[in-house]
Each structure stands twice: as structure tokens, then as C-alpha cells.
Amino acid sequence: MSQVHNNNKPGMVLIISAILVGIFVLWGALAPGSLNAAAGEGLEWMLNNFGWFYMLSTAFFVLFVMILAISPLGKIRLGKPDERPEYSWYSWIGMLFAAGIGVGFVFWGVAEPVLYYFDTPMGINPETPEAAVAGLRYAVFHWGLHPWAIFSIVGLTLAYVQFRKDRPALISSAFYPIIGDRVNGWVGKSIDILAVIATCTGVATTFGLSALQITGGLSYISPIPNTIVTQTTIIAIVTFLFMFSAAKGVDKGIKRLSNINLAVAGILLVFVIVVGPTLFILESFVTTLGGYITNVAAMSLTMTPFTESTWLGTNTIFFWAWHIAWAPFMGIFIARISRGRTIREFMAGVLLVPSLLAVLWFTTFGGTALNLEIAGVAPIGDLVMSNVELALFATLGELPLSAITSFIAVVLILIFFITSADSASYVLGAMTTNGSLNPSLFVKMLWGLLIAGTASVLLISGDGGLGALQTASIIAALPFAIIMTIMIISMLMMLGKDYQAEGKKRKRKNRKEIKAEIREEMYQEIKEEVLEEMRDEVIGEMKEEVLEEIKDEIKDNLIDELNQMQEDQKKK
């Protein structure tokens, strides 16, 4: 396999994907209503006809990664057998969140549980205790195991092909075991272009949502107006700041910001737990965790074929498609920072830790908001229905030190925004420079400006331009869900072959060790036998020598005695 990932020249994938994204942006800017209508129709068709596929495939993804982690294959390392993790556990977890999903936690942490309290899943009456419990449970369901299973499949496959098989950091690399060198042709390029478009549109949507939430927060705590001018100014400032981070690279830029962000998020989380309705939050945590564990299988495989309910399509299936659209971006970035970890370590960090933190985050912020809503302290529900980006700040506004915590929340979102832009520009740079692990600063800047420009143009265009782009990225998730299913087959082929090869190596090593042990035992036994024989021979030889010596000595003594006797007789 050729190590083509050192070539970081822009290629066909960059040109074609940039043109296609440009067409989307122009359509959204010139005729946002038309794009919104077309995207809406496409989304409705997809949800109606392929909702079952999303539900089944995401449930399968969760089951697959769990079985993989606990199987003997979990011991295999993402890299060469002697490699060890490149980043500490804390930095690694920080970068996982800061890559982009942390924005989702902050944006939806308050809004989603409250939204489901009013707009409930089928069979639950709105504005009841059951609706509050279900709201928290479904919010965790949408941000817990399932999205991280989706990201982990892409991340695991790409980490394996990059660091174990020396293939470039491209989605198409995962298909090498199936289609061989054709990944370097039009088939591989088509897969990579689809991944770039899904990533670019998804990240541009996040840029827009983050700008909305930051300006919403600033307008809530200061006289700064929540206008298009403010939103585009925020995007310009973040773009300027991310360029400094991008210039530093992953180790210094993203890693440092991620460590800071994890600490800031932790401080805000602990503060709300301590000064908020602590007992209510802790009870909600236990109830939500128990309800999630108990009902996760049923929620994963429940649809509504006998009713006209659209809740599942507009919520659960919508989120599954959105997470799959994010999978190329999250997968490539997670792969980049996970070198040297075993599959089991990887799954613990990418699947279990974020899922537990999702339960804690949503029950803390969503539980506090529900407590305020149910107690009649603040109309959080009305705010969620009208201005969802203000939900977090309205909740913090009802707690002590609200000015400080709201400012901290703005800083948190801002750093998430910068790290998302940084990691997105890195990933898109890698995907459009033949999978280079160190794309040039120029290419990273180019993608950063393209994404920022896309978000700005669609915010300015109004009339659903940003929503249309989000919908388009979700539609792009359908073919990528099929690609992910094939990825699993490819992954199993590679793991199976390598596990068998390692098994043969282990057998050969064991045979050598056993032979060495037998050899040592036989050596000792033969040594003892030889020593015994040598001792017998030596003793025999020594006896003969001693016998000869004694005979000689006796002879000498006898001769001396005879001589002495003769001398004595002469004297007489």
C-alpha cells in the first residue's frame, strides 16, 4: 500500500466539492425560498421512505461497536503494535467534545427537554410529570450512545486504515479491502466528494447556529442587538481568531483550546448543579439514566406504522440523519487524535464517557429549565418555542450571578465555535489534499473562509436559507448511511485478517517459548547426566592415578627401607 497521505497538494476533490458547495450557496443566497422548499420536500420524502432504515441502522451501529469493544478484537491497537496514545486522556476527551458536538450540547441542553415537555412523543400527554421525564430521556437518547456510535464507526475505521494500514486520511480509504486500488479512481473520489459536501454543509450550519446563539446571548445580557450585522460580525471575529489556532496546528491550537473549554464547561456545569435545584437535578439524573438504560432498546426500534404521528420523523429520525451527516467530519478528526489507543480504549472514550456526560449535562441544564417552567418561575417554554437560542441564557438568568454565568456561557460557545472551525478546516483540508495528516495552512484557511462565507450569506439571505442548508446536509446523510454500513463490512474484513495473522504470530511465539522451555529443561537434564558421567570418569581416573601414586610411593618406601637395611648390615 502506498503512503500517499504525505502528498498535500489540492486535487480534484477540492475543485468539484468547492464548486458544488458554491452552487448551493448561490442558490441559498439568490433564491432561499426555492432552496428551502426543495430541501423540505427532499427531507419529507427521505423521512417518510427511509425512516425505518435510519432507525434500524443506528441501532445496529450501537450494537456493533459494543460487541466489538468486548470481543477479543478489542485488544487490537489503532496503530502499530508498539505505539502508545499520542494525547493524554483529558486532552483527548476535551478534543472529542470541542470538535463540534459540544456546540450541540450547549445549544440543545436546555431547549430539547423543554421542547419535548410541550411537544411530546406519541402516547404521552403534554405538560405532565410523564412528559418531563420523557423529555429528558429523549434528549439524552438523541445525544447519548447513538450519535457517538455513528461517529466511532467512521473514526475507528479511518484510524485503523491510516495508522495500521498506512492509507491516507480519506473516507474512501476505508473501502480499500473491498475495491482495492479503485479507491484511487472515480469511485473513491465520488465517496470523498460526498463526504466533503456533507461535512461542509453541516459545519456551515453549525457556524450559523453558533452565531445565532452567541448574538442571542449577548443581546440578552447587554444592549448589543441581535441582528444580521451582529451575527456576521461574530462570524468574522471567530474566523479571524480561528486562523491563529489553525496556524498553531492540532497539538498547540485545538488541544489547548479544548483543554480550556472542557474546564470552562465543567465549571459552568458544577455551578448550576450547586446553586440550582440540586436535589431535583440529582434525582432527575438517576431517573433519566435508569429510564434510558431500561428503554434504549425499545426507543431505538419503535416506529409508528399504525398512526399518522410525525413526531418520530421530525425529532429522532431527523437527529439520526443529522448525526450521520456529521460522521465524516467527526470521524476523520476523532481518528486523527486517537492514534495508539486500543479499540477497547477507543470505545470507552468515544462511546461511554460522552454518553454519561450527556446524561449529566441534559439533566442539569434541561432539568433546571423544566423545574423553572413547572414551578412557574420563568416562561422557558415560550422562549424555546419562539427563540430557541435564548433558552440557555434565560435559564441562567434565573440563577445567582447570572451576569457572570451568562458571560461564561458566551465564552464557552465562542471557544466551541473557534475549535469547531479549526477542526473543520483541518478535516476538510485533509479530505481535499489526498488525505494529508498535515494539510497546508493555505488550504485550511480557504475552507475556513468558505464555511464562514456560506454561513454568513445564508444568514443574510434569510427566508430559511440556513435551515435549507441544514436540510440539504441531512439529505446527504442517506447515501452516507449506506457507505457506513459497507464500512463495517470492510472493517470486519481487515480486523478478521489481522486478528488471524496476530493469532498465528502468537502461536509461533508460543511455540518458540515452549521450545525454549523444553530446550532449557533438556539442557539441564543432559547437563546433569554429563556431569554424572564426567564425575564417574574423573573419579575412576583419579582412583587409578591415586592407586599408581600409592604403588609408586610404596615401592619408593620399600626401596628406601631395603637400602637402609643393607646399610645397617654393612655397619655390623
UniProtKB/TrEMBL annotation:
Signal peptide: none annotated. GO terms for molecular function: transmembrane transporter activity. The chain crosses the membrane at residues 12-30, 50-70, 90-111, 145-163, 193-216, 228-247, 259-282, 317-335, 347-370, 390-420, 441-460, 472-496. It holds the Pfam family BCCT. The keyword Cell membrane applies. It is found in: Cell membrane. GO terms for cellular component: plasma membrane. InterPro entries: BCCT_transptr. The keyword Membrane applies. Keywords: Cell membrane, Membrane, Transmembrane, Transmembrane helix, Transport. It is a multi-pass membrane protein. Coiled coil: none annotated. Belongs to the BCCT transporter (TC 2.A.15) family. This is Glycine betaine transporter OpuD. It comes from Halalkalibacter akibai (strain ATCC 43226 / DSM 21942 / CIP 109018 / JCM 9157 / 1139). The lineage of its organism: Bacteria, Bacillati, Bacillota, Bacilli, Bacillales.
